[in-house]
Amino acid sequence: MSLWARSLGSEPGRYLRAFRLFLSRSSEHQAMQAFVGGRLPPLLHSIGEGKEEINILSVGGGAGEIDLLILAQVRSRYPDIPINNEVVEPNAEQIAKYKERVATTAGLEGIRFTWHQETAEEYQHRTTTSRQLRKWDLIHLIQMLYYVKDIPATLSFFHGLLDANARILIILVSGSSGWAHLWKQYGTSLPRDDLCLYVSAADIAAALDAGGMRFQSHELPSDLDISDCFTEGSGDGELLLDFLTETCNFSKAASPVLKAGVLETLRDPACSICSDGKVLFNNNLEALMVAP
Ligand SMILES: C[S@@+](CC[C@H](N)C(=O)[O-])C[C@H]1O[C@@H](n2cnc3c(N)ncnc32)[C@H](O)[C@@H]1O
């Protein structure tokens, strides 16, 4: 880890403000909602075939926003089959929000929820050592593999838990996104947090290939308006720059050379396009559907 600055993750308050600003300036959630409501249902068409119960494992399910959208799709495909939805999520606050969401959402009858406050690695260790390994019809890992240390081992563990017709759904930033380009150029100069790896869907696809796991890839178009990053003294611009570089107070902490280089890369056509006077960063996501 570089010592010239702290990672944004080490300041939870600033991270949360930056993340909220990111969501309000990007089409990230809209892109996921469009995918889950449009292209995903046919891809999950057979997961409940011949089953008495559909078992879904959400790994890093966060506050459950996307989970409930996925459940609604599975429910409408299989209205008569009970669903068992288990969540592996280390953050207690996220679990509390998830529970609140479930309590205030209509139409979840016939879905059983269980939360395990643990990481993917802890889940693997607990279920393996206690011999509680079980099969799943859908396992999803959405925007969370950045936080897993041994990605090949994690992928191969969950792949081994797939039942017949089951799928793993992985969503991460796309290998063609501005993120992947920025990390290639500057990943080694930024304060790499032990808890966050600069991985994109391209790295995951390579790991799946190397492990002999079959998958299909789907691009989810999304952008992020980063125009404010180029306005000297803009508070929002500085917060967005922190989010893009995972660095606390990047504008003040970075050397002039590094700051100029990052800003130039952000404007590079490999990262962004200019449209209607705005600089739009390529925030494309990629969904990988892995088969047994
Ligand atoms: C960016 S959020 C994504 C939440 C949700 N999947 C979504 O897309 O809305 C990442 C989540 O992964 C969780 N997480 C972090 N490290 C993890 C690990 N090692 N195993 C499982 N979950 C983890 C975090 O607590 C957080 O809730």
Could you explain the architecture of this structure?
By secondary structure, the chain is of the alpha/beta class. The protein has a single domain (8-290), classed as Vaccinia Virus protein VP39 (Rossmann fold). 40% of the residues lie in helices and 21% in strands. It is built from 12 helices and 10 strands. It has helices spanning 12-25, 28-37, 40-43, 65-77, 92-103, 120-129, 151-159, 178-186, 201-210, 235-245, 250-253, 256-267, and strands at 54-59, 83-88, 111-116, 136-142, 162-173, 215-220, 223-225, 272-275, 278-282, 285-290. The strands form 2 sheets. A 7-stranded mixed sheet has the order 3-2-1-4-5-10-6, with helices on both faces. Strands 7-9-8 form a 3-stranded antiparallel sheet, with no helix packed on it. The two termini are 37 Å apart. The mean pLDDT is 93. The structure holds S-adenosylmethionine (SAM).
CATH topology: Rossmann fold
| Bound ligand species | S-adenosylmethionine
Strand order of the largest sheet: 3-2-1-4-5-10-6
Counting copies of identical and different chains, the oligomeric state is single chain
Largest sheet: 7 strands, mixed
Q: Count of DSSP E strands? A: 10
- Average pLDDT over all residues: 93
Structural class call reads alpha/beta
Global geometry: globular
Q: How much β-strand is present in the residues?
A: 15-25%
What is the domain tally? 1
Radius of gyration: 20 Å
- String of helices and strands: HHHEHEHEHEHEHHEEHHHEEE
Tally of contiguous helical segments: 12
Percent range of helical residues: 40-55%
| Unreliable runs | none
Top CATH class: Alpha Beta
Examine the secondary-structure arrangement and name the CATH architecture: 3-Layer(aba) Sandwich
CATH superfamily: Vaccinia Virus protein VP39
Terminus-to-terminus distance = 37 Å
